[in-house]
Amino acid sequence: MATIILTPPGSPGEDVENPGQKVLISMSTTFYPQEDPVTDLIIISSDNVFFSVHKRVLLFKSNNSFGAFLSEPDTNSIIVPESSNVLNLVLYAFYDLNPAHYTPSLDDLGEMLLALSQYGLSLEAPLAKGKPIYNLLSGFAFTFPLEVYTLASEYDLESLAVDASGHLLATPLHHLTDELCLRMGPIYLRRLLFLHLGRTERLKALLKDAPAHEPTAECGAIDQRLKLKAAWREGATSLCWGVNASTPISMIHAVLSPIADRLKCEECKTVAREKIRSILVDWTMVKSTI
Ligand SMILES: [Zn+2]
Predict the structure, then answer these.
(1) One domain for residues 9 and 135
(2) For residue 275, how far is its CA from the centre of ligand 1 (angstroms)?
(3) Distance from residue 237's CA to the centre of ligand 1 (Å)
(4) Is 195 within 8 Å of 163 (Cβ atoms)?
(5) Can you give the residue range of the structural domain that contains 116?
(6) What is the DSSP letter of 6?
(7) Interior/surface letters 40-57, b for 16+ CB within 10 angstroms, e for the rest
(8) Same structural domain for residues 9 and 121?
């Protein structure tokens, strides 16, 4: 039987054809037959790539005999439904290796999570914060936060969900489709909704009370009500129409600062500017993740 060493796709390797038997095999460049310790199981992916591995590694890490594929002790080859890209990631997880150099797609990582669950590998260790697979998924949270949050929710990956939620503040809630909500489940969906609603309500509360200073001969309580408080209410109301979980401090500053600048009373100006500064600081301190 001829041998070819080429996998996963895109890896450097060479094609070898046995002219006698005309059999061509693609074999993993990482999981190839080894003597020390000897590999004793061939796993064949859906696209016919061969992976030579150690049964005891899979059986030790799996809580279901690798999806019941290894229930029989004399099994020495199995065919699995995963593609070589996904199977490669699965085996990297079982062997606790770093697959980052393959730059896997988010879809492949999602399929890997499903496969790992089916093959009985606890996600706790390979998906711990800071581990290579965690970092790969977390990296996608910048560009695909909703998909990463959904995946994290599906597999109850708390740290990853928290990380991804920090990138979801600017994502409108109407982007949540029925399918995404179902995949997230009620707990993570509720946490995401409350993150958005909680931050929005907090900003509204920060804007609610107008600033004031001790009444003076030039600027008494009525003067302040007619000028400072009226101007503040006008600015805060216009802001409140558009505030959301991701309202930038630059927008708050741009709307409220002209109010302070227009006031004639110096004390009104001072308290208005202090109030604006305090709102900006408080807003940056409001929790930005689930
Ligand atoms: Zn005043």
Answers:
(1) yes
(2) 14
(3) 21
(4) no
(5) 2-140
(6) -
(7) ebbbbbeeebbbbbbbeb
(8) yes
Q: Say how many Å lie between the CA of residue 233 and the centre of ligand 1.
A: 15
**Residue 116 placed within a domain:** yes
Last residue of a domain, one of 91, 115, 140: 140
Q: How far is ligand 1, taken at its centre, from the CA of residue 285, in Å?
A: 29
Distance 279 CA to ligand 1 centre (A): 20
Q: How far apart are the CA of 268 and the centre of ligand 1, in A?
A: 4
Q: What is the pLDDT along the chain (290 residues), one digit of tens a residue?
A: 334 544 454 444 444 454 555 667 899 999 999 888 999 999 999 999 999 999 999 999 999 999 999 999 899 999 999 999 999 999 999 999 999 999 999 999 999 999 999 999 999 999 999 999 999 999 999 999 999 999 999 999 999 999 999 999 999 999 999 999 999 999 999 999 999 999 999 999 999 999 999 999 999 999 888 999 999 999 999 999 889 999 999 999 999 999 999 999 999 999 999 999 999 999 999 999 99
| Sign for the pseudo-dihedral over CA of 265, 268, 270, 276 | negative
Q: Ligand 1 centroid to 212 CA: how many Å?
A: 7
Task: Measure the CA–CA gap between 185 and 190, rounded to whole angstroms.
Answer: 9
